[in-house]
Prior knowledge:
Largest sheet: none
Radius of gyration: 20 Å
Shape: flat
Distance between the termini: 27 Å
Oligomer: single chain
Number of helices: 4
Order of helices and strands: HHHH
Strand content: under 5%
Number of domains: 2
CATH topology of the largest domain: F1FO ATP Synthase
Amino acid sequence: MRIVLAIMAFVVVATIGMGARLYIKGADCSKIKKTLVANISMFAPLAAGAILLMIPEIANAATTTGTDASGLGYIAAALSTGMATIGAGYAVGSVGSAALGAVSEDQKILGKTLIFVGLAEGIAIYGLIVSILILGRI
Length: 138
């Protein structure tokens, strides 16, 4: 378990270091993007493996103080908040860029575009509410 976490930390530090090195050298964006994609493609499976390795430990640690399902309840609360936040970030990025383009053509529709961006941000709030409800049942 500690080996996986150490490898993940190394990948993160390597990503930051390579990005800084390429930026200082003045490399073109395609090299920086390729390096970032390579490091993310290594980081994502390592993070998934670390989470899978930690699930039994979390569930067993939670059973000493609570019920058998409390450990999985904490995981469910974390996943609901995390996945909703990732979805909201993706939605705000898509809607925000489209809204910016629309407002640059016609400034009268600024209010309408803010409503759509606000609806996209609401996704994160829904995930937070679900996680609070899950934590209230534990």
